[in-house]
Design a protein that fits this description.
Blueprint lengths: L29 H11 L3 E5 L5 H13 L4 E6 L3 E2 L3 E2 L2 H11 L6 E5 L2 H4 L8 E6 L5 H11 L3 E10 L10 H8 L5 E4 L5 E4 L7 H12 L1 H22 L2 H14 L1
Parallel strand pairs: 1-2, 1-6, 2-5, 6-7
Antiparallel strand pairs: 3-4, 7-9, 8-9
Helix pairs in contact: 1-2, 7-8
Bound molecules: S-adenosylmethionine.
The site of S-adenosylmethionine (SAM) has 20 residues, from α2, β2 and β3.
Length: 254
């Protein structure tokens, strides 16, 4: 199958994000996230696991730029976890200051994923990003408890689909779920799985899936190159002492 999808027509794919972070594994997926907001125009976006807010703020920025009128919710304890590491109040304070510009349509819900379930009506979430603890049990539980919140247009994003060491289990859940739904998996930057769980996807999203699955290698190369450019920019701008912070974080991941 071929498609009419033309990435050159996307404005968001080439937009410079306002918020990246030296040690976020999400920097390289930002071009896709911003383009997805443009294609999908989600009515409600929920993110489970926000930390410094790289993925979340990219979506908020794209919502403003495209006029998508998306209601956005970031859920996190902002305390950290066994994979992201535990951290202090400064992370939340830093994000909150940057996030002020989005407060008319976006909320930072500082609570557990389970507690946030009562804040969001059923079948309302068009875009759900699951990026909390990455064990198989945790990510499966996040998916199963939040699936009833997802709409008929729903897309679920899973970060870290390519990490197969330590006790990371997103890849295992991805193998199971991707048998049942239209999907595409980006393999760079630890992997990002895109799962179309809703039966009524907008035409632009259908066209993206058709193009991506017809030309998986070129699609992966395009998004990986655009993402890598952003990571290089962040690293170039970082002072030398911060670059060694990056090196230490990467060494921990190996
Ligand atoms: C991998 S980080 C998120 C990274 C982020 N999406 C980005 O763009 O860089 C995972 C976050 O999930 C949060 N988290 C994990 N499990 C949680 C839970 N059950 N409830 C609330 N927050 C949780 C942690 O506090 C941590 O900040």
């Amino acid at each position: 199958m071929d498609s009419d999808f033309n990435p050159l027509k996307s404005r968001m794919l080439f937009t410079t994000p306002q918020r990246l972070h030296l040690v976020s594994a999400w920097n390289e997926h930002v071009p896709f996230a911003m383009m997805l907001i443009e294609l999908q125009q989600p009515r409600v976006f929920v993110e489970l696991g926000t930390h410094w807010g790289v993925s979340y703020c990219a979506c908020c920025q794209a919502a403003v730029a495209t006029g998508s009128k998306t209601r956005c919710y970031a859920v996190d304890t902002w305390a950290g976890d066994a994979h992201a590491g535990f951290y202090g109040q400064e992370v939340y304070d830093n994000l909150k200051a940057h996030h002020q510009q989005y407060e008319s349509f976006s909320k930072l819900l500082r609570m557990t994923f389970d507690d946030a379930l009562r804040e969001i009506p059923g079948h309302s979430v068009d875009l759900l990003h699951i990026d909390g603890l990455h064990t198989y049990e945790a990510v499966k539980r996040d998916y199963e408890t939040w699936l009833p919140k997802v709409s008929e247009r729903g897309i679920v994003l899973f970060h870290d689909t390519m990490v197969k060491d330590r006790d990371f289990g997103v890849h295992k859940l991805w193998d199971e779920l991707s048998r049942d739904f239209p999907h595409f998996n980006f393999e760079h930057s630890y992997g990002l799985g895109v799962l179309a769980v809703g039966k009524e996807q907008p035409e632009a999203v259908r066209q993206f899936f058709a193009m991506a699955n017809a030309r998986p290698d070129s699609t992966r190369q395009l998004f990986s190159a655009l993402g890598h450019r952003l990571q290089c920019e962040v690293e170039k701008k970082a002072p030398p002492q911060k670059r060694s912070l990056l090196q230490r974080a990467m060494d921990r991941l190996k």
